[in-house]
Design a protein that fits this description.
Blueprint lengths: L2 H14 L6 E2 L4 H4 L7 E6 L4 E5 L5 E2 L4 H13 L20 H5 L10 H12 L4 H16 L5 E2 L1 H10 L1 H12 L7 H12 L1 E3 L1 H7 L1 H4 L3 E2 L2 E2 L3 H14 L5 H7 L4 E3 L4 E6 L3 E6 L2 E2 L6 H14 L12
Helix pairs in contact: 1-14, 3-5, 5-8, 5-9, 6-9, 6-10, 7-9, 8-9
The protein binds glutamic acid (GLU).
The site of glutamic acid (GLU) has 11 residues, from loops.
């Protein structure tokens, strides 16, 4: 057995035995039904090999991991102009926090907190109707993963529409500052559909290849190497809300979490990694997902802070 397969199998077995698995998100109704016992991990290497363990083929709600794909599309649409409407500093606040917005005049700290992603969605809607923007996102992730079976879970999108009161407050508040240009309901409807993308660890790790490979996805140039580097930098500093410093400290890789319990992590030049376990820590990040990534990095030496990182 390849040693990477062995490492992943060991980690999956260790995770099965874990007692403290965190708490499944329940503020989006369908997510509350997902069994906390689930655990999957997928690694796609720079050589193009795919390694899987656990429930790596089961689709889950990627939620805020979609913020990485939305950021990529928005930078493609408007380039660095985007940074006039959203910052790129860690927030140190919860994913759905509203407190900073008043002091900072409706400019969210970064594109990976909810407020920031809602602005990014508004930017994408500046160029499309909601239906087209959702279709564009779906085509994008299908192309990235090379898999047309990826879809959107309408029940999850609808549930968020019913209960997303904080997101509605964030969007309306930013609209008052002039930083949301579209109709709030249309912007949020689009944002909720992005969050409701359903993907497996395998599909997600395949979709993350362009960030591992300097902007190349399966050998095709998708974005410049500089843009890929910069998206990875924002993932490293802002990808885990008020837990981002701890993620960098423990794992040392650019990553983005979602309240569905998924994490996409990137070892540039080496591997694209997706992990899923639906129980969350108090910051809304996968409890076991983080532990699994920590163990993977310990056993492979893949942290970007490793002196010989990426060396042949
Ligand atoms: N759709 C979720 C929300 O807006 C995303 C949060 C997350 O995944 O962190 O509340």
């Amino acid at each position: 057995m390849d040693s990477l397969d062995r490492i992943l199998a060991e980690i999956a077995a260790e995770m099965r035995g874990m007692e403290h698995r965190g708490k499944v998100a329940d503020y989006i109704r369908p997510l509350a039904q997902v069994p906390v016992e689930k655990f999957g991990i997928a690694v796609v290497t720079a050589k193009g090999e795919t390694h899987l363990a656990g429930d790596a083929e089961e689709a889950f709600s990627i939620q805020s991991i979609s913020k990485v794909f939305a950021l990529t599309l928005a930078l493609g649409a408007v380039g660095d102009q985007l940074w006039k409407r959203v910052g790129r500093e860690p927030s140190g606040s919860a994913f759905n926090s509203i407190v900073q917005l008043e002091n900072e005049h409706g400019i969210p700290r970064n594109p990976f907190i909810n407020a920031g992603a809602i602005v990014v969605t508004d930017v994408l809607l500046g160029h499309h109707q909601p239906r087209e923007a959702i279709g564009q996102m779906l085509r994008f992730v299908r192309e990235l993963a090379g898999d047309d079976s990826i879809g959107i879970d309408e029940a999850v999108a609808r549930a968020e529409q019913d209960t997303g009161f904080r997101n509605k407050a964030l969007a309306n508040y930013m609209r008052a500052f002039g930083n949301i240009e579209g109709e709030v309901d249309l912007v949020l409807g689009t944002y909720f559909h992005y969050c409701a993308l359903a993907m497996s660890c395998r599909q997600l790790a395949l979709a993350g290849r362009y960030l591992m490979d300097g902007g190349l996805s399966n050998g095709h140039r998708l974005i410049t190497a500089r843009r890929a580097r910069r998206i990875n930098a924002v993932m490293m500093s802002c990808g885990h809300y008020d837990n981002s410093g701890d993620f960098a400290y423990r794992i040392g890789l650019p990553g983005k979490s979602g309240v569905g319990g998924g994490i996409l992590a990137v070892a540039p030049g080496i591997a694209s990694i997706a992990v899923w376990s639906p129980g969350l820590n108090p910051s809304g990040n996968s409890q076991l997902g983080q532990i699994a990534l920590e163990r993977l990095v310990q056993r492979t030496g893949w942290s970007v802070f490793e002196p010989r990182f990426g060396a042949p």
